[in-house]
Amino acid sequence: MRKKALQVVLDVRQPSVIELTVGERVQLDRLTAASHGNVAERHGNLLDAGVATLALDPGFYFFKTLSAANLKVVHGGVNTSASTNDKDPWPDPPAGTTPLPPAKGGDDTPGDVPEFTIS
Predict the structure, then answer these.
(1) What is the residue-wise DSSP string for 7-20?
(2) What is the pLDDT of residues 70-98, one digit of tens each?
């Protein structure tokens, strides 16, 4: 069975330091508001498999992975949400925040979902 991408949004409420452990190379994007909706901009270099320690300013960040991932907040304030909807360019941020572009229609395909843990 094919693997499904896990989409993770990090809602960083205050300057924070996190440790992100991933099993593959991933791209961390920062979501910023634009006149035509939100735009994803690459944040830093690609993250190699393993543990990466990142300092994040307040805002929304996003990454996709096909492997298990673990997030540890070293200090600061970070809320997370994860989904497997791979039809959208990026998932919605947590409730009560600026909405992202509307979801596109389509069937959800079957697949194995990676595990996302917070420690």
Answers:
(1) EEEEEEEEEEEEEE
(2) 999 999 999 998 887 655 555 555 555 55
- pLDDT band for 101, please (50, 70, 90 cuts): very low
Task: With CA atoms as reference, report the closest residue to 87 among 101, 102, 106.
Answer: 106
Exposed/middle/buried for 69, CB within 10 Å: 0-12, 13-18, 19+?
Answer: buried
Phi, psi of 8 (to 5 degrees): -120, 130
Q: Domains of the chain: which residue ranges?
A: 6-118
DSSP state letters, 47-87: BPSEEEEEEE-SEEEEEEESS-EEEEEEEEEEEEEEE--TT
Residue (of 60, 35, 29, 32) closest to 47 by Cα position: 29
